[in-house]
Design brief:
2 strands, WH-like_DNA-bd_sf, DNA damage, mainly alpha, methyltransferase activity, Arc Repressor Mutant, subunit A, DNA methyltransferase, ATL_DNA_repair
Length: 107
């Protein structure tokens, strides 16, 4: 992975606003990353200063080891989960089409 891609992924994650969530796949699509797993790797290694809690798995759930803290942080921002799952239809980040977040920007 090159530094440019790494920074692009970080920028896209940083742009997800409070009260919204995105999936690892959403971030990969917008940033042009080859896979959602790479997004997770970047967050795990270099995401301490990012709003990591706004990034969820494709089914709207947090990773099990982050569950309690992640849901608590999301609730504080107004994202109310249904049990342990966030309703992506309601809270999913809709990127501003005028915002140039990268080559893979789909939404």
């Amino acid at each position: 992975m090159d530094d440019e891609l790494h920074e692009r992924v970080r920028e896209v994650i940083a742009s997800v606003p409070a009260g919204s969530v995105a999936t690892y796949g959403d971030i990969a699509s917008v940033s042009g990353a080859p896979s959602p797993r790479l997004v997770g790797r970047i967050l795990g290694e270099d995401g301490h200063d990012l709003p990591w809690h706004r990034i969820l798995r494709a089914d709207g759930t947090p990773a099990p080891h982050l569950l309690d803290e992640q849901l608590q942080r999301l609730r504080a921002e107004g994202v109310i989960p249904d049990g342990q799952r966030v309703d992506l239809r309601k809270y999913r980040w809709q990127r501003d089409p005028d915002d140039d977040a990268g080559p893979g920007a789909l939404f």
